[in-house]
Amino acid sequence: MLLGPDDLTSAASGLPVKVDRLSAGWLPSRIRQIQSPGRWALDLPEFNCAFRAIGDFNPDSVALVAVERACGSTICGIPLEDDLILAIPAGTSVTATVRPGLTYAVAIVPTATWMEIQSVATRTVLEQVSDRPAAVRLAAGEAQRIRSQMRSMADHLATVASDSVLPQQPPGAFVEYLGVVANAFAGPDSRETGTAGSASHHFRQASAAEDFIRTHIREDIPIVRLCKEIGVSRRQLEYAFRTTFAVTPLEFIRALRLNEARRLLTTARANGLSVTTIAMDVGVSHLGRFAANYRLFFGESPKETLQRAGRS
Fold first, then answer.
1. N or C: which end of the chain has fewer CB atoms below 10 A?
2. What angle do CA 53, 66, 17 make, to 5 degrees?
3. What pLDDT does 138 receive?
4. Are 76 and 111 in contact (CB under 8 A)?
5. Which residues of 3-33 are buried (b: 16+ CB within 10 A; e: fewer)?
6. d(CA 206, CA 181)
7. What are phi and psi of 164, to 5 degrees?
8. What's the pLDDT score for residue 191?
9. With b meaning 16 or more CB within 10 Å and e meaning fewer, what string describes 189-210?
10. Is the Cβ–Cβ distance between 11 and 55 less than 8 Å?
11. Which residues of the chain fall below pLDDT 50?
């Protein structure tokens, strides 16, 4: 599938997300999905736009993300690296800052299946799984072998799916891959990355600021107010936003206002709202600048979005 930023809300199996663009300009993202609905799935995306995504992962499944190209992206506050494998436990509230070029393969399986595979691979009985995301870095050769295995498996499953319904239980090649991942997490180099020092600290600062911005998006939010609410200096806040979102706090606030305006414009006709009313509702004080920034971000004017929504 080729998906533009407006289509990315269902780009991950089992994870409906709210997506906000972080920069203007974009190319379609490429996403390959193979699913046995409600049981297991294999996603292979390559994202070509910068965005912030927030969603709640399936409460009964585990996601295992094998990163090929990180490009400075983060998931659940963990700075991604090439050749990293990230385990996201069931029910996790997922946040992601995606930068263009992020490429990975994610296997999604029921928690019980993952626990069973771990116990077989490590010859230990696991009474519980981690309740927070964890990651392990693979050797380059091992990571390349896994990526090749994932692509071959995707090709095979796509052929199977074209002829019949996929089985409810993951096929043998899929289970074999999960065994390799389980061994990686059981090895001496495995690590939990939720305590990644300064990177984690900066992420928490930026996330706290993000929560405040979203709550007060209709208000004027000068940076000095944001610094006071979060308890950091302007320089600290700028650095936290740069390392977490790759934009400044002011650019982030503007991006959120534009994204919220776009969501409102797509339903404005049904609700009897005008472009001006919506702009004011999301805290815009300069309508001309709003229209120019909106066109730069989305490739059309607010009025064009409103008219298109009325025809759909």
1. C
2. 15
3. 84
4. no
5. bebeebeebbbbbebebbbbbbebeebebbb
6. 31
7. -160, 175
8. 45
9. eeeebeebeebeebbebbbbbb
10. no
11. 125-128, 189-196
**266-304 as b/e: b if 16+ CB within 10 A:** bebbeeeeebeebbeebbbeeeeebbebbeebbeeebee
DSSP three-state, residue 56: strand
The single-letter DSSP state of residue 248 is -
Q: Which helix (H) or strand (E) holds 16?
A: none
CATH topology of domain 197-311: Arc Repressor Mutant, subunit A (1.10.10)
- pLDDT the model gives residue 48: 92
**Residue 247 DSSP one-character state:** S
CA–CA separation, 309 and 283 (whole Å): 22
What's residue 4's pLDDT? Answer: 82
Angstrom distance (rounded) from CA 152 to CA 158: 10
The DSSP H or E segment spanning 141 is helix 140-163
Residue 231 in 3-state DSSP? coil
302, 294 contact by CB (below 8 A): yes
Angstrom distance (rounded) from CA 145 to CA 140: 9
Instruction: Round to whole Å and give the CA distance between 181 and 177.
Output: 6
What confidence score (pLDDT) does residue 37 get? 67
Report the b/e string of 229-254 with b at 16+ CB within 10 A. ebebeeeebbbbbebbbbbebeebbb
3-state secondary structure of 29: strand
Q: How confident is the model at residue 207, as a pLDDT?
A: 92
pLDDT value of position 187: 67
- Asked whether 276 and 287 are in contact (CB, 8 A), the reply is yes
pLDDT of residue 193: 44
**Topology given in CATH for the domain delimited by 2-186:** Jelly Rolls (2.60.120)
Q: What pLDDT does 53 receive?
A: 93
pLDDT at 125: 46
Element (H, E) at 3: strand 2-3
What pLDDT is stored for residue 189 in this prediction? 46
